[in-house]
Amino acid sequence: MSLSVNGQSQVPPGFRFHPTEEELLHYYLKKKVGYEKIDLDVIRDVDLNKLEPWDIQEKCKIGSTPQNDWYFFSHKDKKYPTGTRTNRATAAGFWKATGRDKIIYSNFKRIGMRKTLVFYKGRAPHGQKSDWIMHEYRLDDTTAVATDTIASNSLGEIVQEEGWVVCRVFKKKNHHKSLDSPSNSTNITSISKTQMLNSNNDGALDQIIQYMGRTCKKESDNINHFNFINSSNNSNIRVSRSPFEATIGGDRFMQLPALESPTFLDQASSSQECYHPIEAQLITDSETNASNVLNSVYQSNGLALSELDRLVASHLNGQTETSKQLACFNDPNFMFCTTNNNSHHDHDLQLSQLRSSANRLYHHSTQDYNSDIDLWNFNQSSSSSSDPLCHVSNSSV
Amino acid sequence: MGDNNVNLPPGFRFYPTDEELVVHFLQRKAARLPCHPDIIPDLNLYPYDPWDLDGKALSGGSQWYYFSRRTSTRMSANGFWQPLGIDEPIVTSNSDRKVGMKKYLVFYLGEAPMGIKTNWIMHEYRLSDTASSSSSRSSKKKTATKDASKWVLCRVFEDNDGSQGSLCDNDQELSCLDEVFLSLDDDFDEINYPN
Questions:
Q1: What is the ipTM metric for this complex?
Q2: B3-190, what's its fold?
Q3: Is the domain defined by A21-146+160-171 classed in CATH 2.170.150.80?
Q4: Going residue by residue through chain B (195 aa), what tens digit of pLDDT does each one get?
Q5: Of the partner residues A15, A233, A303, the one whose CB lies closest to the CB of residue B180
Q6: Is A229's CB within 8 Å of B161's CB?
Q7: Which one of A28, A98, A333 makes the best mutation probe of the B interface by having the most chain B beta carbons within 10 Å?
Q8: Is the CB of B162 less than 8 angstroms away from the CB of A262?
Q9: Secondary structure string (H, E, C) spanning chain A
């Protein structure tokens, strides 16, 4: 069966364009830069500067099936003739890069990079952040030359065009379940999600705890096959897809990811030995809500694992100032310190030291930037090269 | 990932919504209308262990799809499927009309009630009673309803990571760090732009 995709006929029911990152780079973008013909007009060329994100879904739709993400080729346009920065402004706003670029691997070989961008309405620096996200994939210069599938002209010279990227645009999901989402969570979790959606701030904490408790319970059932998969493609921690904001103890969680699907992709399987005892202990020893909250955050928020270790330790030691400790995570300054520190933490630290450090951390981190000193002192005093956590804080960015 | 006999460019996968499974496949099957493409096979009752479905059922990513008959004993060679709690209604996205029901099941090795739980999950779709009876004529109502409700459509997958069978084998959604950076952006703006 052959079909024309962007033209007359349709993709058969149930089929969607859902390419892997490898397919995007190795098949589509490679053909694009190599001037190879792509059989079907699946991915269109667009001028990013003339296309608002809300128009993309019409322009880039494939067939008539509902889509959650859209794909296009874009040619990078330089902001200044002499510079290397890319102009990603549109009439209504601009795309702003966020985070660091992620390396894309294929069979353990690096093939390209992925940049994450957010669309802001208005003009910098007063743009208003939207829910539109773009993943911009580019090939490594070296891969294009090193591989044998690139196009060459009659003289055997390598012909390829610089500046093409392939982009995937999607709207950041709220934790409300989408009808289009083919892989759904269980009924129980969707019910509790609905409860949360319908609730106001009153009793939100109770609901969150309830929600987390249920999730934890489910996960504790699955604890035997809570796998730490040896990742072949990336070293990132894949966590959830839908962040939710919630009110707890008067503070806001920072975009805490949803808890339904925590998956740790680790290169080092040794981390299993490290995490499991703590996790199991939490679930079996203390069924309190506080520990469930801690445990949930611990499982789902891969970023702050090292800090959470400390919190968990202090909790096990009888410390129950959960809301206080959680407030640490609301502080952007705190988070930033955590992500950038290259120190290692030792799990065998004295619990009393952990507890006091966690408290110190909380009290100081909310004040000013000088509070970093305490954090650093703590890290340095407790550094250990054997800690499997080090690759989490180092390589997952 | 070969998606059977549908010849589509790389990147296309069988990734159906609940609604599509019920409306495009199950309703047509029950009404004996031809399915185009006819890709979901009819495996009688529940004879296969979930790990034996490969090659027999339609594979979409790491999930398998097949038709079966409605029964209360879902036994295979080495185990059985145990339902999990409540069923979920499937409604159409444009009219909120209830078209079917979705049941969640877990595969157990051995014999009930002593089986060993596995991480194989099944979503079993059936037509809702109203949906099947509304499409039947009054004189043949009883037989038609009975006929339509005997089919179920099964989606089976191994829930290795608690992700409920997500097809995203590479993290295409926002990673945790992306989320953090997204939330930090506003603060950076304030810092970076003193003007």
A1: 0.75
A2: 2.170.150
A3: yes
A4: 333 456 788 888 888 999 999 998 998 888 888 777 788 988 877 778 999 998 889 888 789 999 998 888 888 889 999 999 889 999 988 888 899 999 999 999 998 888 999 999 999 999 986 544 444 444 444 554 555 568 899 999 998 765 444 444 334 566 777 777 777 655 444 444 444
A5: A303
A6: yes
A7: A98
A8: yes
A9: CCCCCCCCCCCCCCEEECCCHHHHHHHHHHHHHCCCCCCCCCCEEECHHHCCHHHHHHHCCCCCCCCCEEEEEEECCECCCCCCCECCECCCEEEEEEEEEEEEEECCEEEEEEEEEEEEECCCCCCEEEEEEEEEEEECHHHHHHCCCCCECCCCCECCCCCEEEEEEEECCCCCCCCCCCCCCCHHHHHHHHHHHHCCCCCHHHHHHHHHHHHHHHHHHHHHHCCEEECCCCCCCCCCCCEECCEECCEECCCEECCCCCCEEECCCHHHHHHHHHHHHHHHHCCCHHHHHHHHHHHHCHHHHHHHHHHHHHHHCCCCCHHHHHHHHHCHHHHHHHHHCCCCCCCCCCHHHHHHHHHHHHHHHCCCHHHHHHHHHHHHHCCCCCCCCHHHHHHCC
